Amino acid sequence: MTFNSLTFAVFFAIVCALMALTNIKAVKEKLPWKVSELRHTVLLLASYVFYGWWNWKCCFLMLGLTLVAYLCAAAYDRDGRKFHVLIGVVVPLIVLGIFKYFNFFIDSFCDVFGISRAGSLNILLPVGISFYTFQSLSYTIDVYRGKIKAEKSFKNVALYIAFFPQLVAGPIVKAGEYIPQLYEDRNISLENFQAGIQFFALGLFKKIVVADNISTFVDAVYRSPAEFHALTVLLAVAAYSVQIYCDFSGYSDMAVGCAKCLGYDLSRNFNLPYISRNVTEFWKRWHISLSTWLMEYLYIPLGGNRKGKRRRYINLMLTMLIGGMWHGAAWTFVAWGGLHGLALCLHKLFMERPGYGKGKDSPVLSALSVLATFCFVSLCWIFFRAGDFATAMKVFAAIFTWQQGVVHPSSWALLGLGCLAAATLAAWIRSRKLGIAIQGYYPQLKLNTVPGLLVFFLFVGLTLGLAYTGENPFIYFQF
C-alpha cells in the first residue's frame, strides 16, 4: 500500500484508533503490562502488515536483518569483540549486494570481457531494502562507537528498523534519534495530530497534484527525446527537477506527518534545495538523511579531510560514486554520482583560493549562483531519469544541438515550476521576517478554529480535485 491510496487511509485510521485506545484510563488499568509495550507491539505489527502488503515473503528478509543487527550489537556489548561488529556490517551489505546488484555486476563483467550470457537471475528487489539496510547498519555501528547502548529489547530494535512511516523511502533515521523516543511517553495527542495531518496534506499535494501531473509530460519527452524541440526538452529537464523534488519531499512530508500523528518525531529530509548557491550547499539541503549518513558512516571513516587534500578529493569522489550506486544498479547512477562528486571537488578547490568568503556576495551574484546550481543539478538529473546512456545522450543532443521538433509547452510543467518558485520565495520571506534559518516551508493552521478548518478542508478539496488519477508510484520506491 502507498500513502496516496485509500487502502492506506483505512489502515492508518485503524492504527490511530488502536493507539488512541491506549490513552483511555480504563484500558490502562486493565493492562497486565506497561502501556508503552502495548503501543510498541501495535506499531511493530502494523509495520509488518504495511510492509507485507507488497510481498509478505520480504518480511522475513527484514526480520533476518533485524536479528543480525540485534544479536551482533548485543554480542559486542557483552564481550567487546570487533568480530561481531564486522558480521553486523558485512551481512547486511552482502544481502543488499545480492538483491540489488548481483545481475548488474554479472552483466557488467560479461560486457567487459565479451562473455555471452544466457540470461539474468530473476531476483526480486524488495521495496525499501536500501533504506532499512542502512538503518540496521546505523544501529550496529552506533553501538560500536558508543553513541548508544545495545538494546536489551528486541522489539525496540525491530520497531526502529521497521517503523512504517519511513520504512520504504525514508527519511533514513539513526538509532540514536529514534530509539530514545521509545522510552518516552509518546502517543496520539490533539496537538500532534493537528501538526501531523497538515504535514501529510502538504506532502500529498506535492505528490498527486504537482509531481504526478508533471510526470506525464516528462515521461513522454524521455520516451522519444528525438521528436521534440530543444525548448520542450529543456522544459522537460527542468520539470523533472520539480517532479523528483515534489515526489520525494512529498513522501518525506507524509512520513513525517504520519509519525507525528502517532507521537514520534522524524527529521526533515529537505530544506529548499533549489535555493542552494553551490553543490556543497545543495547536498546539505537535498535528501539530508542520506547525505548525513554517507558523511558519518562513509566519508569520515574513509579519512574525510584529515589525511591531506588529495585524499579528501578521493574520499569525496568515492562517497558520491557509492551514493550514486546506492540509488540504483545502473551506470547512469554512477555517472550521476560521479558528476556530483566532481562538482564537490571543484567547489572545495574554489573555496581554497585566497580571499574566499571574506567579502559579502551581492544579491545579483547570489541569484546567479542559485540559477547556475539549479541548471547543473537539473542536467545531472538527466542521467538519473534516463533509463540508459543512449537516452541520456539523446536528451543532451536535443538541447545542445538546438534540435527542431514538436513544441509542447506543458501547462502542468510551467505551473509546477511556478508553484515551486512561489513556495520557495514565501519560505525565504518568512524566514527573513522571523529571523530564523529556513527549515522547509511548513505553514501551520490552528485546526481548533473555524477559519483554520475551513482553509484546511479547502486545501484538501483542491488537492483531491486536481489530483492525477493514474497509477504513479513514488520514484524512490525503486531504490
A few lines on this structure:
By secondary structure, the chain is mostly helical. It has 18 helices and no strands.
Description:
- There is one protein chain.
- The protein is mainly α.
- It has two domains: 6-187, no CATH class; 192-277 and 361-478, no CATH class.
- Helices cover 68% and strands 0% of the residues.
- It has helices at 6-21, 25-30, 35-52, 58-79, 82-113, 129-145, 154-162, 175-178, 190-223, 230-261, 279-285, 288-302, 309-327, 331-351, 363-385, 389-400, 411-434, 450-466.
- Helix 4 (58-79) crosses helix 7 and helix 15 (363-385) crosses helix 16 (389-400).
- The chain is globular.
Key words describing this protein structure:
2 domains; mainly alpha; 18 helices; 479 residues
Using the alpha-carbon principal axes, give the shape. globular
Compute the gyration radius: what is it? Answer: 23 Å
Note the run of SSEs as H and E: HHHHHHHHHHHHHHHHHH
Overall pLDDT level: 86
Span of the ends, CA to CA: 16 Å
**What percent of the residues sit in helical stretches (DSSP H or I)?**
55-70%
Structural class: mainly alpha
Give the low-pLDDT segments.
Answer: none
Q: What percent of residues are in strands? A: under 5%
- Number of DSSP-assigned strands: 0
Query: How many structural domains in the coordinates?
Result: 2
Q: Given the structure, what is the number of helices?
A: 18
Give the topology.
Layout: H1 6-21, H2 25-30, H3 35-52, H4 58-79, H5 82-113, H6 129-145, H7 154-162, H8 175-178, H9 190-223, H10 230-261, H11 279-285, H12 288-302, H13 309-327, H14 331-351, H15 363-385, H16 389-400, H17 411-434, H18 450-466
Helix pairs in contact: 1-3, 3-7, 4-5, 4-6, 4-7, 5-6, 6-7, 9-10, 9-17, 9-18, 10-15, 10-16, 10-17, 12-13, 13-14, 14-15, 15-16
